[in-house]
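#lab-general

N.A. 3:47 PM
ok so I finally got the sequence cleaned up, no stray characters, all 332 residues accounted for. can someone with queue access submit it? mine expired

B.Y. 3:52 PM
send it over

N.A. 3:53 PM
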Amino acid sequence: MSYSEFELIRRCFVDEGLGFDRDGVVLGIGDDAAIVQPPNGMAIALSLDTLVEGVHFLKHAPARLLARRALAVNLSDIAAMGAEPLCFTLGLTLPESDDGWVAEFAAGLLESARQFNCPLIGGDTTRGPLAITIQVHGMGRAESFLRRSSARAGDLVCVTGTLGDAATALLLLGCESHLGPQFAFTSRPNKAQEQALLARYYTPEPRTDFAQQAREQINACIDLSDGLLGDLAHILEASCVSAQLDLEALPYSKTLMAVLCAEQRERAALGGGDDYELCFTVAPESLAGVQDIARALALAVTPIGVIAEGSGLTLSRAGEAIELASNAYRHF
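B.Y. 4:20 PM
back already:
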């Protein structure tokens, strides 16, 4: 059944509870603009991403999973700042008014919004090729937000979780990988392994709790959306430092270990993108405390390199320097 714009918003977003109450939000969905009032002393951090069908996700991708992914990738940016999720707005461009699809999409949004206490406070719908734009608002004290520009010589380079699973999931979805035609399974995954890879792609886990708890010990931070090589380079450039990475230290899931050879795992981790883990730098004396915080959240933190003076990125394996071309994702 086809509904007008306002009927669609009411039925699928308002009536389903996406505009739930939350401290800091004075007025949500239903007026010409929302009103946000964070507690005294708090600042707002904003992040916006657009996902376009055929560019960022496949045609006919499951609406519920697509919604969860769309919100998660924005929340990951908020995590990289060490901010607390507050609320979000949604711009939804639809080829047609499809109540069933939108209802599934809204259900997926609600699952993630409730998980991170981040209600929908407004947005817009329009007709056109399917595209999803989400802007997330986070809050925290301005002086405590994490940045890319604070890495220091002597810091350890660390990552949360494991790398490469989401990029590998694209092989299951039949996508052409920017990692090249040589990127392929070494061993065909079984059903459980397929589900594990697809979960990492469709439902990445923003590391908001970890970042908020560890931010006082973290120096510089970025989320891994476009691949480790490309994203770490942003920290190095912003901080005017260099880094040395130990390729043998890169963390992989059991699934990736089973389905890709060492060379392919490395390729996926360095250039694959879509991990939405955090890459951050920390003073050596602070590593144990950061790992304790992560362990309490059932999260791994792995040191993979060292920040040094100078510029550029050096990669090593078994103590020997090597050169690899960057395959970080590029939008243009």
